[in-house]
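In this supplementary section we document a worked example of the pipeline. Step one takes a protein sequence of length 79 as its only input; no multiple sequence alignment statistics are reported here. Step two produces a three-dimensional model, which step three serialises into structure tokens for compact storage. The input and output of this example are shown verbatim.
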Amino acid sequence: MTNDELDDRPASALADATVLLTGATDGIGRASAVLLAPQVGTLLFHGPQDPAMVDALISELRGLAGRAGRVQYFQADYG
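The serialised model returned by step three reads:
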């Protein structure tokens, strides 16, 4: 599904969805998180233990989501 198709869907179509994004701290994963945060019911994402990167992203996504409880981060370092 393209970004335009997501933008054209009624807000209620994603409002109850729970989305888990992997690799959401940079690149396409981060862009997807920014796009989805205001549209989905709950956004779950994971990434590395890098407080400077993660804290800023959590704040940004919670601001976009409108409610702090809708965005949750899980630390997962596999390297």
